[in-house]
């Protein structure tokens, strides 16, 4: 992610690396699950296996809104249901 923030210290550029450690719940991802795992996998898709697109967008928005004196360089997001 690269944000140009005019009027901010350091030239107003905030660079961050965002790791999305799960599938994002989109039609394309659901099609890939269906192709590789079949109908049963989609019917029994565990809650929290995929991240909602709006939740991912919220993570980006939070980075954008950070104050310049406490910028995050790297952020890793994953659903709470992921097994560690």
The helix tally amounts to 3
The percentage helix is 25-40%
The H-and-E topology, N to C, reads as EEEEHHEHE
Q: What percentage of amino acids are in beta strands?
A: 15-25%
Content-based structural category: alpha/beta
Low-confidence stretches: none
Envelope shape = elongated
Output the radius of gyration.
17 Å
The number of strands is 6
Q: How would a textbook summarize the main sheet?
A: 2 strands, antiparallel
Textual characterization of the structure:
The chain is of the alpha/beta class and 84 residues long. The chain is 33% helix and 21% strand. The protein is built from 3 helices and 6 strands. The strands form 3 sheets. Strands 1-2 form a two-stranded antiparallel ribbon. The chain has a two-stranded parallel sheet with strand order 3-6. A two-stranded parallel sheet has the order 4-5. The model has no long low-confidence stretch (mean pLDDT 85).
